[in-house]
Amino acid sequence: MNSANPDSTPPNAANQLRNLLVAIAAILLTTALFFGFQTQRSSTSLDAVAAAAIPIDEAIANSKPTTIEFYADWCKVCQSMASDNLSLEKEYSDRMNFVMLNVDNTKWLPEVTKYRVDGIPRFIFLDRTNQAIGDSTGAIPREIMAANIEAAIAENPLPYNSISSDRTSSVSEPKAADISQPRDHGKKAA
């Protein structure tokens, strides 16, 4: 004899409700994953920017000004600037070289040392004769990058530039007396 409890849900109905909830959860999860992957695919990656860039040897050999970006795949700021930098490459690549050098690749250690890369992203602007005419480190808005690129193409001083115009050599070895130590807080020794 079956004894039925009038207050309980029949086992069949409980299983159907559980299966319905599992199906709804699976549909929601699948939808979230689908849109998550779509968003990820639509954002520009550093790989895409690097693929659009030209090799440094080619940039040095032609007569166009050059923008060198030192970056790393793990750099969040580099990643956040990738979309803007790719659009700038597409817009100006007929008049400006764009070079990408990954600081995690020891192959680029001579360039990292030459241009004193102490933070990333680091941008070095070279004129048509490969002389450094400007540099910037960190997050740079697209408008500022575009202004520097346009000035370099027009052979004008860069409007947003951390290399002062009175330096005779933009890439020179520092003298021991000129090197500030972190505890000096920017003060030179007298």
Describe the secondary-structure layout:
Elements lengths: L10 H32 L3 H7 L3 H6 L4 E6 L4 H17 L4 E6 L6 H6 L7 E5 L5 E6 L4 H12 L37
Parallel strand pairs: 1-2
Antiparallel strand pairs: 1-3, 3-4
Helix pairs in contact: 2-4, 4-6
Key phrases:
disordered C terminus, four-stranded mixed beta sheet, 190 residues, alpha+beta
Distance between the ends: 103 Å
The average pLDDT value, as a whole number, equals 81
Number of E-state strands:
4
- Report the sheet-strand fraction: 5-15%
Strand order within the widest beta sheet: 2-1-3-4
Shape: elongated
Proportion of residues in helical segments: 40-55%
> What characterizes the major β-sheet?
4 strands, mixed
In DSSP terms (H or I, runs of 4 or more residues), the helix count works out at 6
Q: What string gives the helices and strands in order?
A: HHHEHEHEEH
Radius of gyration: 28 Å
Category by helix and strand content: alpha+beta
Assembly state: single chain
Low-confidence stretches: 38-42, 165-190
